[in-house]
Amino acid sequence: MQDILLFPDGPRLRDRLSHGELCVQMVPRVLANHTMGLALFFAALFLNAKDRLGLESELRQIHEALTNYRPVFHPYSIIVSMIIDVHERISGHHWVKHLSEGEIQEQVLVHNETAHFIIVKNKVDDHSKNVMEKMFEGTASHNEVRLWLKRIPSLFLHRPRVEWEVLGSLRRTAADLVVIGETVERSLETRSQMLEERQLRSRQRATHRRMLKSIPLVLICMCLVLIVVCGFVIDINSCAMWTDKKQKFQRRFLRMIEKYCQNLKSLTSSNKNRWDESTTITAEFLNKLFMYSVKTNINEFDSNVEL
Question: What is the Rg, in whole angstroms, of the alpha carbon atoms belonging to the chain?
């Protein structure tokens, strides 16, 4: 019901109908059928057994649909969709064909320890750990990641404030990753085609070389950020149990990630193409990310707080 009526990214039928923003004839049939099915099911709950005769088949179908339903417009669901989108863009075939496979694997080896610490920090089950490791190595299939994320259980009603704050931060970070992925993919395609057709001037060719040199590091960093986002998503239900010190630390960490993604989005935009600066801020961020992953695994931050 929140999907249909309340969530800002959803259709918000109650608001739009009651405020005169939408007439009944404009409601899509699929949405109307979903709303009517939900209303009929709730109405049938108050019928006695005699009045339900002849409706068992229809009610069973509606009950099965509702039982298997997962929210579409909840912030958690939107973040999961963004993770899947980003992973599809950076998982190999979109970018690697324009880059040196050796340089990418070199970055994987250099930052493998950071990825290991981040994954271990989340204390996830073996299957989740395996999927996250494969995501970093670039060997996880798009379908494997999608099925894994869809299978992760989560609570959706009456969530504490800190959880909504974390979800908001994760959503902004995931949205920036989507934009960065789209921008870099488009730049690679366009510049590579122009280079093949000898349409790049000398200065543009230099920019293209800097971009090719910078992207492997940016790609690995995006993978690490994506793993961090996945870790928070997997463990989102534990936010309510964080101590005040842990909340403060995690908020600071999430703000650091947000700031990096915002800066990277700006520097890699088509009207800037500042790839040297992108490399610099990415290297600095990776150092901070490594320190965070080490601290949270050996409890350097606070001996009384388990991170």
Answer: 23
